[in-house]
């Protein structure tokens, strides 16, 4: 299970890292424009992704160039996650279906990046993601010990921690703790907005599907007018 205190620390660290990076790059966020958002922060000066190399669930290589030409919404986690990851993916599937039914800015592909490549092979990702939707593209690092995935994680300040299991009776070989954020990438493979979850005292943070839907439409309409 994810530990509540560490999860909050990771979320805060991610937000802090992103905001510091935004300040350094003189990026303006939503508080500096009239756009009102519920769970999102808009970067009016988007941040480009550094060159990276990943692999998807079809064992096809994925680079930043492959993300050009379409909007993407990225979540991250791992397939053995007992709660937050499946809950988020289920809500994202409903959100994506809502977009398609509304026929309003449906040009969006969902991405899921695994931070647990030892267990989350392309084959495992394929079976896992098909449970939620067949059009979610799964990403993980290439086999081997190269660092070609690091520019991707660093560009988005994706933070996670892998640690030994304290409970000797556990069937899991290690624990994986990670933050809970969604990243909106524009068709130039640039970070355009960050979605943050709703915090619930004593419970896991999650995303409100309707707020996500409204924020996404507001961002796209705002950018169309800009």
TrEMBL record:
SUPFAM superfamilies named among the record's database cross-references: Thioredoxin-like (SSF52833)
Q: Name one Pfam family in it.
A: SCO1-SenC
Q: Which domain of life is it from?
A: Bacteria
**What PANTHER family does the record tag this protein with?**
ELECTRON TRANSPORT PROTIN SCO1/SENC FAMILY MEMBER (PTHR12151), LINALOOL DEHYDRATASE_ISOMERASE DOMAIN-CONTAINING PROTEIN (PTHR12151:SF25)
The family this protein is said to belong to: Belongs to the SCO1/2 family.
Q: What is this protein called?
A: SCO family protein
Task: Name its species.
Answer: Alkalimonas collagenimarina
